[in-house]
Design goal:
1 helix
């Protein structure tokens, strides 16, 4: 506390007082003494401090004295607040007998800082008391600055976050520990602990996280209610265009994909950016995209389209692009639709032997509404007319939409049908024709060898033997050699026929052998039937036919001829074909020919030669000589005309006398007759 005193000493006043005092004394009374000084009472601190709004520890007090330093009683003293607010109790005081006047109490103002109280006695300079109001204990935590800011994600807020600690009167409280914590938004603080400064403040720097949206920071101090700062992180400039949904879908051709294709424009941290124009285009596979849809909050930055696939199966691509943000490509797979049509693909209108498999299994093709092949469709094949069987009748279409059974085996000779059915579609019918295996003749050429086999599907003869038919066509009279051999456990045989009848049936003596015959045949067709001598026997065979025109005479082998042939051959020098039989004559050469004659048919045989005197003998198949001639044809030409009573085989013997040789011409003709009698 500071005491301000002013001494006013005026000599004239002093002298006057002395005179007055003397006069008074001389008048018989004691005049009152005027206050001369007012001072702070010793023991009262010159300067005190107290919590703002509280009373100072020592109440202000003064002592009033006269000029001689003697205490004056009953002097009015006024205590009044001069600075800092607050209040004083007992402001109007009166000195006691000791000249002391006391204030009832001094309560400082609620604002921390300087406080002044004056004690005033009329006519004297006041006594001035001072006190310092200090902040009270922390009562509240308040936001001082930095709340509700907005900045780009990943950047620091432009204004520090600051809090202030106040006492109950709002005075800043220094030295208070404050904690900061991020409670939302993934932001980062420059620090998490601090103490209030002289102004009761503490601040931190907040850097926003990478995700756009609200961030929150809570500041707290012991015993005080926390406060929360908020900040808004906004996306930066658009940097990329990214796929956000709908990639790698599958659908049926011509259909709309189940999910939209969605892209998002985003900044460097992946935050969506609204308002970016996106261009969509179909780049592969055909089809189309719908009008783009731009989505608003909370899906800002997204754009989407619906895609209608093209009509061709396979990979489809759609691109989305934005200026400066690049291009993204979506991929979709178009699959064929359900089967809408079934058509014949292969194997229709075939012909094969009855009881055999067709060479080409019937096949259908399944397509969808756009003509694309449909894989995985179930197809049922069933035999219709003609009987027969189908193997693997329950089929499934392959990647080309093709379905086929394993085999279609024809039934009895005649027309055949097979239907292919798919659920929900009209059936498709295949036709085939089963031919009688006995009526089928496979073309055969001279100097050809066939390796064949007899199976249970071949033609069955009247004797119960299986048979394969071949057809040899001769453009001119030809000497041929026919051979038949066993290809594996088969007692093989071959029947040589003309257009109207059998010429010869021959075969090996048993299995594993081979037989050959020589024929001189006029121009025309000749069926050759490979068969067996044993009913029901199956196995392989070898059938051969060769041109024997250049082979010459094979003495003693015998050659089968057919009427209306002219044979030109020769006997070689040296008696190659000399006969040892008595009938022919020792040393004579002979060549044998065989001919089949019908009952009542007249056989005419002529043998002519300019090199020797020919001779003819006709022998029945029982060995009986039925005719012979030397020169009956005129000159040296031999001629026999014989009418056969029955159908039988005759041996024609062409004879050259001993010691004679050379070329000859043999002519064999037959006319009339019938098939009655023996027939081979």
């Amino acid at each position: 506390m500071q005491i301000l005193r002013t001494r006013r000493v005026h000599a004239l006043l002093a002298a006057a007082c002395l005179l007055l005092a003397a006069a008074c004394e001389g008048g018989g009374g004691t005049p009152p003494r005027p206050p001369f000084a007012v001072t702070a009472l010793p023991g009262v601190p010159a300067s005190q401090s107290a919590t703002a709004g509280a009373s100072v520890p020592v109440a202000p007090a003064v002592r009033v004295t006269d000029e001689g330093g003697r205490a004056l009683a009953d002097v009015p003293v006024t205590f009044a607040v001069a600075l800092g607010g607050g209040s004083v109790a007992g402001g109007a005081a009166v000195t006691d007998g000791d000249g002391i006047a006391r204030a009832g109490g001094w309560t400082l103002g609620t604002t921390a800082g300087a406080n002044v109280l004056t004690a005033t006695v009329a006519g004297l300079d006041p006594v001035v008391f001072t006190a310092q109001g200090t902040p009270g204990p922390p009562a509240s935590l308040v936001k001082a600055q930095g709340d509700a800011q907005t900045a780009t994600v990943g950047s620091a807020l432009p204004v520090l976050l600051a809090v202030r600690v106040d006492d109950q009167h709002g005075n800043a409280v220094p030295g208070v520990a404050v904690s900061f914590a991020v409670t939302a938004g993934g932001a980062v603080l420059s620090g998490t602990q601090g103490q209030t400064d002289a102004q009761g403040r503490v601040d931190v720097l907040l850097t926003l996280g990478p995700v756009a949206g609200n961030a929150a920071v809570t500041a707290s101090a012991a015993g005080l209610a926390p406060v929360t700062f908020t900040a808004l992180g906004v996306a930066g400039p658009a940097s990329t265009l990214a796929k956000a949904g709908g990639d790698n879908q599958q659908g049926v051709v011509g259909s709309v994909l189940a999910d939209s294709l969605t892209v998002r424009a985003q900044d460097a941290h992946g935050n969506p950016i609204a308002g970016i124009p996106v261009a969509w285009a179909v780049t592969q596979g055909g089809g189309s995209v719908s009008q783009p849809v731009v989505l608003s909050s909370p899906q800002q930055g997204f754009a989407r389209v619906r895609v209608t696939l093209g009509t061709q199966p396979g990979t489809h691509t759609v691109t989305a692009s934005a200026p400066g943000l690049g291009v993204v490509t979506f991929i979709a797979t178009a699959n064929p639709g359900p089967a809408a049509a079934i058509t014949r693909h292969a194997g229709d209108a075939q012909t094969a032997l009855a009881g055999t498999e067709l060479p080409v299994p019937p096949a259908v093709r399944l397509t969808d509404a756009h003509g694309n092949p449909v894989e995985g469709a179930a197809v049922a094949f069933a035999v219709g007319a003609g009987g027969g069987t189908v193997t693997g009748g329950s089929a499934v279409s392959d990647e080309d939409g093709i379905a086929r059974p394993a085999a279609w085996t024809l039934g009895a000779p005649g027309p055949q049908t097979l239907t292919a059915t798919v659920a929900g579609l009209p059936p498709v019918t295949f036709t085939a024709f089963a031919t009688d295996p006995c009526a089928v003749l496979t073309a055969f050429s001279l100097d050809t060898e066939v390796f064949g086999s007899l199976t249970t599907t071949d033609c069955v003869t009247a004797s119960g033997a299986y048979m394969d038919g071949y057809l040899l066509h001769l453009p001119a009279q030809t000497a041929v050699e026919v051979s038949i051999g066993d290809g594996g456990g088969l007692h093989a045989a071959v029947e040589v026929r003309s257009a109207s009848r059998r010429i010869e049936l021959f075969g090996a003596a048993g299995t594993g052998g081979e037989a050959r015959r020589r024929f001189i045949l006029p121009a025309g067709p000749y069926p050759l039937n490979a068969t067996t001598f044993t009913a029901g026997q199956t196995g392989s065979y070898v059938l051969g036919v060769s041109d024997a025109s250049a082979a010459g005479i094979r003495c003693g082998d015998g050659t089968i001829v057919v009427p209306r042939v002219v044979v030109q051959d020769e006997f070689l020098p040296g008696g190659e074909c000399a006969s040892a039989t008595v009938r022919i004559g020792a040393g004579n050469q002979v060549e044998e020919y065989f001919v089949d004659v019908l009952a009542g048919q007249t056989l005419t045989v002529t043998l002519a030669s300019s090199a020797f005197d020919p001779y003819l003998v006709l022998v029945a198949d029982d060995g009986t000589v039925v005719a012979q001639d030397d020169n009956g044809g005129g000159g040296t030409t031999a001629r026999i005309a014989y009418t056969s009573p029955t159908a039988r085989r005759y041996r024609v013997e062409a004879v050259a006398p001993a010691g004679q040789d050379g070329a000859y011409t043999l002519t064999v003709e037959a006319g009339g007759g019938s098939l009655r009698g023996r027939r081979r």
